[in-house]
Amino acid sequence: VQLVESGGGLVQPGGSLTLSCAASGFFFSSYYMSWVRQAPGKAREGVATISGGDGSTYYADSVKGRFTISRDNAKNTLYLQINDLRTKDSGVYYCAALPVLWGEGTQVTVS
Which of 16, 53, 64, 106 could hold 8 in an S-S bridge, CB 3.0 to 4.6 Å? Predict the structure, then answer.
């Protein structure tokens, strides 16, 4: 059972990134999946969640209109499109099947 994130990096303010999360070892399409981020010195913050069934999405107020979560169940992959990046978006972004399964995270730095 594994989640592996990719796509992080160093981006200028106003830029965009797409994060990916490859899932394996479990029935991905059945699970709600989330992106959670953690800025240095701060608690983890859930930013987006997508259901396994009808693909309903939920966003933290801080990212609404800039972040888009999506999934490709055929590829067992979760995505997070991030637009209009701001310095406060910097942190480690984790893919998770809350509460028990987490990836290792991918670093996003906006500077």
Answer: 106
Dig out the tokens for 55 from the structure: 């693909």
> What is d(CA 95, CA 86) in angstroms, rounded to the nearest whole number?
20
For residue 42, the model assigns a pLDDT of: 95
Q: Which amino acid type is present at position 82? A: I
CA distance 44 to 22: 21
CA pair distance 87, 4, nearest whole angstrom: 24
How does pLDDT run across 44-89, given as a tens digit for each residue? 999 999 999 889 999 999 999 999 999 999 999 999 999 999 999 9
Q: Which residue has the tokens 């800039």?
A: 66
Distance CA 71, CA 50 (A): 8
Share of the chain above pLDDT 70, in %: 100
